Amino acid sequence: MSELKFSNLVKLILVATVSIGSLVYVSGAVAGDITYPEPPVVTPNPYPVPATPLPPIAMPVQTQYQGQVQNQVQNQLQYQGQTQGQFQGQGQLQGQGQFQGQGQGQSQGQGQSQAKFTVAVDVSGSYNIVEINDGVTTTKSTQKLIELRPYLSYGTLVNDIEFGGAVMTSLIYELGGTPEYSLGRTEADFLVKKAGDFALGAKAGYNRLNFSSTSPDPAELGSYTELDASAFVEKRFGQFGVSVTGSYVQDIHDGTLQGNATTFSEADRDKRELGAALRLNYHFDEAISIFAEGSYGNKRYVVVAVPSRNQTEYGLRLGGTYNFSAEIAAEIAGQYAYHQVECGCTTQLFGGDAKLVAAFGGGFSGYISANAEYATSTDAALNSKGFGVAAEASVLVANSIQLSAGAAYDMAFYGPNEGNSISANADVRVGVTENIDIFAGVNYGYKTTANPGWARNYGATVGVSLHN
């Protein structure tokens, strides 16, 4: 893990997973920001994406580097290419495989370095089942997928400065699909970092998934395209730290509804989002720090509805981090957001969150988190209240077997996202030889809303990874 001390690593993990939701909003599913379901087309990936260099201390964005279970209430962008379903939306555990390491060279003394170059190709097969109940009838559909995922990464450490980058892509073949092929998640990122001093990085990704009447939701034919980019810069000045983040997201859907289906309306989903955040940290010592975050978000729909749902949000989040020891740390924070929609209504949101992270010897790590939100709006229909909890654990057995599991539960008592959701996943990765890993995983999701009925999904994936 190079020169990055665990106390600082814990701070970065805590910060990264409870701050700006979806890189745009300080909270996530802000009241009035109705969460419209995405077509539950699966990009199978219940196994670890090969590791890239770790992000800096207190990086104010959740990215693939941490890969915690992504709370639906937080509405995080899904970098790893997980299921895009309305009732899944949960990230997969990004435990490190036997071969992957951290893509970082080990210091060989002043002015010397050792580079690490990783090449990997994963081939996997997935079988997914989706059941949707409208209160009367249950529709069951299945999906069989084969995915090819090549990956390249490079990392080195020169004079205590880490340089790293990675590129990956995915080609998906759906048995019986129309069309059968989809380009899954394609992503490139880079990072430059000196532990405890400065860091800067950028990430860009592109998703294109085809879905049809054979896909889990039988209501639509067409495709889903997502383009996202984000960048950050961070600097520490003694006990103070400053970081700035910017992001852009574009979602475009080209779908044709079948029959009387109204689940997926392009006017509801095609949008562009801009986000920016400024975070200030103050470290009293290596154990205690406090922070303040300010954020700005702007969402614009391609098709302007009447009344308009274009919206802007300003947010403020205050909190602190405490390291109990080198193995256990916690963060707690409160937040406020002001949310304005062009139709004339405004919403104020109040929330809080807490997180406990642990990492012990023997390759065990995990966390548990909780959050709650309350919103009041000039449009009474947008008033809301809800909470969420999540947990994740990973353990390395005999240096060749990685076991991981995660679960999350969210409840909205009332409001536009009224209902509850449950998700869980379990994964195993085994190093067969120095250059071959096998992996397998299972997942489950269940969701209800204010409307009659429910949605449920479950599936499994198996695969093999070839690497240097």
Concise description?
The protein is mainly beta. It has 2 helices and 19 strands.
List low-confidence stretches. 1-112, 213-219, 257-265
CATH class: Mainly Beta
The count of β-strands is 19
Terminal CA distance reads 20 Å
Number of domains: 1
* Radius of gyration from CA coordinates: 21 Å
Q: Structural class, judged by helices and strands?
A: mainly beta
- Give the overall shape: globular
CATH T-level topology: Porin
Helix content: under 10%
Q: What count of helical segments does DSSP give?
A: 2
Q: Judging by the overall fold, what is the CATH architecture? A: Beta Barrel
Order of helices and strands: HEEEEEEEEHEEEEEEEEEEE
Beta fraction: over 45%
Describe the structure.
This protein is mainly beta and 468 residues long. It has one domain: Porin (Beta Barrel), CATH 2.40.160. Helix content is 4%, strand content 57%. The chain is built from two helices and 19 strands. It has a 19-stranded antiparallel sheet that branches. The longest helix has 13 residues. The protein is globular and about 60 Å long. The N terminus is likely disordered.
Task: List the keywords.
468 residues; mainly beta; 2 helices
Topology summary:
Blueprint: H1 6-18, E1 116-133, E2 138-158, E3 161-168, E4 171-174, E5 181-194, E6 198-211, E7 220-237, E8 240-257, H2 266-269, E9 271-283, E10 288-301, E11 311-323, E12 328-341, E13 346-360, E14 364-377, E15 384-397, E16 401-414, E17 419-431, E18 436-449, E19 454-467
Antiparallel strand pairs: 1-2, 1-19, 2-3, 2-4, 3-5, 4-5, 5-6, 6-7, 7-8, 8-9, 9-10, 10-11, 11-12, 12-13, 13-14, 14-15, 15-16, 16-17, 17-18, 18-19
